Amino acid sequence: MSAEKTALISWEDAGISNNFIFRLAMDDTDICQEQLEILLGTKVAKIDFKEHEKEYEHDKFQKGIRLDIYIQDEDGTAYDIEMQVGENEKDYLPCRTRYYQSKMDGELLAKGKSYRYLKNTIIIFICTFDPFGLNLSKYTLVTKCVEAPDMPVNNRTTTIFFNTKGKREGLTPQQIAFLDYVDGKGASDEFTKKLDKRVKFVKMDSGKKADFMTWQQELIEQQEIGKEIGKFESTIKSIKKMMQNLQLT
Fold first, then answer.
1. Which of 11, 13, 57, 159 lies at a C-alpha separation of 20 to 30 Å from 184?
2. Rounded to whole angstroms, how far apart are CA atoms 170 and 138?
3. Torsion angle of alpha carbons 49, 54, 57, 63, nearest 10°?
4. Contact 22, 202 (CB under 8 A)
5. Which residues, 6+ apart, have CB-to-CB distance to 197 below 8 Å?
6. pLDDT surpasses 70 at 248
7. Residue 3: what pLDDT?
8. What is the pLDDT of the chain when averaged over all its residues?
9. Cα separation values, 14 from 21, 165, 207, 234, Å
């Protein structure tokens, strides 16, 4: 999510599309499981492990990441659910999922075990914009062979992008109701009403409001650091270009 956009959201105005509120709402195991089943359109084995904002930072030389909602079910399938509002990284979302996938696989496969023991992983992005510009509400990405598209390539990985702005063809009524709810159209079915009630409940906690303010401040600080890095990189490029011009004269 864009730090700049998030910083403009007050606690009173923040809804399910806000990362912080989304994580709080999913803290209810039953709601989290039902949400996952709605997004996938199928039943999911009982959730036996759940962690919000899971951090991966193996060492100082690797880029650290945070997963919004990280889940493993009893069958060992791992799920990552991300709420994405800012479009600033739109062109890099597929690369981002690739990196997330690598970190998840590293944890799922214990050191020394064969690759055959890798379990299924499903990464889900809920976007409030169209990530690929085809006006679809759902994009499911799996590995395929270019020369033989119908040949199954089961590397046990799936990435799904939901778009709250796309046409609703091919979606279930529950998926439509949820995407409409995220898009600000209000709760319209049993689950979204339950979810909306959960959102209102967590927002009654004054302690969570204080945490929200701290979270926003951290995002603002990260944004400022990013701006300074951008200025530094721009200066370096200008110096390199100037030196190249001097060499040509």
1. 159
2. 9
3. 130
4. no
5. none
6. no
7. 41
8. 82
9. 7, 19, 15, 35
- Strongest mean pLDDT among 31-40, 62-71, 218-227: 31-40
CA angle 116, 122, 128 (to 5 degrees): 160
pTM exceeds 0.90 for this model: no
3-class secondary-structure state, position 121: strand
In 3D space, the residue among 128, 134, 210, 199 whose CA is nearest the CA of residue 162 turns out to be 128
Asked if residues 94 and 82 have their Cβ atoms less than 8 Å apart, the reply is no
What are the CA-CA distances from residue 140 to residues 25, 84, 115 (Å)?
25, 16, 24
Position 69 confidence tier, pLDDT thresholds 50, 70, 90: confident
Instruction: Measure the CA–CA gap between 56 and 237, rounded to whole angstroms.
Output: 31
pLDDT in tens, 157-195: 999 999 999 999 999 999 999 999 999 999 999 999 999
Distance CA 63, CA 211 (A): 25
Place of tokens 């919004």: 68
Residues near 96 by beta carbon (within 8 Å), at least 6 away in sequence: 89
Query: DSSP characters for 34-47?
Result: HHHHHHHTS--PPE
SS3 115: helix
